[in-house]
Structure formats: structure tokens, C-alpha cells
Amino acid sequence: MALRWSDIDLATGKLKVERSLEHTVQQVRVKEPKTRAGRRSISLDAFAVAELRAHWKAQQEERLKAGIGKGGKETLVFGPLTGELPRPDTLTKQGAKFSQDLGLNVRFHALRHTFASMMIKAGVDVLSLSRRLGHGKPSLILDVYCHMFGNDEGKIVQALNAAFSSVRKENLPAIDR
């Protein structure tokens, strides 16, 4: 929610996560992510780049139509045209309405879990996924998503067979029993 256009390089498909929003009793303010690992750079897929380009164009047209003028690099990517900081729960509420309009019952944060599950199923390694999600420890992926990894006993046996297939029994040292 604190993402600015200056955080996105659409030419290279990179996005920097350097800020987040916090809703205190008095105000909404920008702060650093919870952990050092939360500050990260991620690569964007072609679909995301195309959608962000379309969003930028629509946002600029909306600003001009409202008489505000074009937004600059420090304009929020997702937020009110007026530039004030949105409450963090705004996206949650908008996501709930969108989900309801589609006849679904999906919470916005569940999309993060869906993404992680899809990446595990696609074979993305735990360390890369952990970094992408901004986790401080890769073990969090294993703790939360261990059920997604299944049982690879067959793969273990195949790997052992491949590793030892070139070893001849007669070349092994005798084992005292």
C-alpha cells in the first residue's frame, strides 16, 4: 500500500519493496517493513508489467480528468488520487467487496497463501520463495506449507540408486561385523 511509482522499473520488470503502511491510533504513516528481509527487490512477470502499465495510464487519465494534473514518481501506485495515505485495511475491504461481487468468499490475504502454494507446486525452492515473500527465515515456508511438499520417498530412492549405480560392490571395503 506504500508502493510508489519510483519503486517500479517497468522497463526492467523490477519492483522494490522498501516501505509499508501502519495505522496507529492517531494516523496512518509510512514505515519500513517489519524485518530487514521485508526490504527486497522482486522481478515482475510480463502480465504484471502489462497490468501496471495499464494502471499507470488509467491513473494518469483519472488525475487529469479530476483536474489534479499528472502524478509523479512519488505518487502512490494504489491509493486515493488526492495523495493521502490510505488506511491499510482499505485494500482488505476492497478485496472483500470484489470477492463478494464475483460470488466468492476469499480474503485478500489468502491470495498470498495461494501464491506461495502455487510456487511450491511449481517446484520453486524454499529459499527463493522465502525471499520473494519477504520472510526473515526460510523455515517459515516449511512451517506453514509443509503439507504442500508431500512425500518424495520414491525420489529419494531414485537419487540413491543413481548415486550408487556406478559403485561396484567388489570395490567397496569389507565391513567387519
Give a nutshell description of this structure.
The protein has 177 residues and is α+β, with helices and mostly antiparallel strands. It is built from 6 helices and 5 strands.
Please, what is the average pLDDT?
Answer: 87
CATH topology of the largest domain: hpI Integrase, Chain A
Could you tell me the number of beta strands? 5
**Count of structural domains:** 2
What percent of residues adopt helix (DSSP H or I)? 40-55%
How would you spell out the order of helices and strands?
Answer: EEEEEHHHHHH
Strand order of the largest sheet: 1-2-5
So, the CATH homologous superfamily of the largest domain?
Intergrase catalytic core
How would you describe this structure to a colleague?
- With 177 residues, this protein is α+β, with helices and mostly antiparallel strands.
- The protein has two domains: 1-88, Intergrase catalytic core (hpI Integrase, Chain A, Orthogonal Bundle), CATH 1.10.443.10; 109-167.
- Helices cover 41% and strands 10% of the residues.
- It contains six helices and five strands.
- The chain has helices at 46-65, 89-101, 110-121, 126-133, 139-145, 153-164, and strands at residues 8-9, 14-17, 20-23, 28-31, 40-43.
- Strand 1 (8-9) and strand 2 form a beta hairpin.
- The longest helix is centred in the first third of the chain and has 20 residues, at 46-65.
- The protein starts with 7 loop residues before the first strand and ends in a 13-residue tail after the last helix.
- The mean pLDDT is 87.
